[in-house]
Amino acid sequence: MTKQQILQKITLYVLLDKGLIGKRDIERVTLELVKGGAQMVQYRDKISEDKEYLENARAIQKILRKYRIPLIINDRLDVAWYLNSDGVHLGQGDIPIRVAKTLLRKETIIGGSAETVEQAVQAEREGVDYIGVGPIFYTTTKKIGAVRGIKLLKQLLPKIKLPCFAIGGINLDNLDFILRSGCNRTVVGSAILKSKDLPKACREFLNRLA
């Protein structure tokens, strides 16, 4: 399948954040996400030293490749390039999309972040493959300036042809607001990783998103 065909099938995109995992074994957590049906996984790690980061990313990749689940590396273009990962996600302050496209394989998925309609339009013009839209709700996963709310999704979706994933503070209690906006693709971190039963949490999201 092409990367476009892969992305069209994805509704549950899990943010595997090292800061949320704590002392749990990262391979075990990854396997639990696989068991629950996570369709794409982004590895985000703002606390590990480079050596540990690379070791963790390689371990996650080994598991996900076995199950044909795309691994997206957050921010670290160097790691995505070295591991020949399925993709990389770049924020507004990261390496420009045009630079990433010159360094990575044509098949590599490139995601971009957008907090405004203008940023989303620009990212689509620069050639990203999907857009993470938000933060929609308040989140403790990363420092944010302001939440963007459902209003952003309603304004943005009609203007963007690419797959758009709502991100930021999404849980089962507020998921209906996302769905009513017309978006059925989400990036979920805390609501799954902090759950006592990760596979069950994944399945609950998948059922609702379907």
Descriptive notes:
The protein is α/β, with parallel strands linked by helices and 210 residues long. It has helices spanning 3-8, 18-21, 26-36, 50-66, 77-83, 97-103, 117-126, 149-156, 175-180, 190-193, 198-209; strands at 12-17, 40-44, 71-74, 87-90, 109-114, 130-133, 164-167, 186-188. It has an eight-stranded parallel β-barrel with strand order 1-2-3-4-5-6-7-8, surrounded by five helices. Strand 5 (109-114), helix 7 and strand 6 (130-133) form a beta-alpha-beta unit. The longest helix is centred in the N-terminal third of the chain and has 17 residues, at 50-66. The protein starts with a helix and ends with a helix.
Outline:
With 210 residues, the chain is α/β, with parallel strands linked by helices.
What would you call the structural class?
alpha/beta
String of helices and strands: HEHHEHEHEHEHEHEHEHH
Span between N and C termini?
21 Å
In total, the number of domains comes to 1
What average pLDDT do the residues reach? Answer: 95
Find the count of extended strands (DSSP E, 2+ residues).
Answer: 8
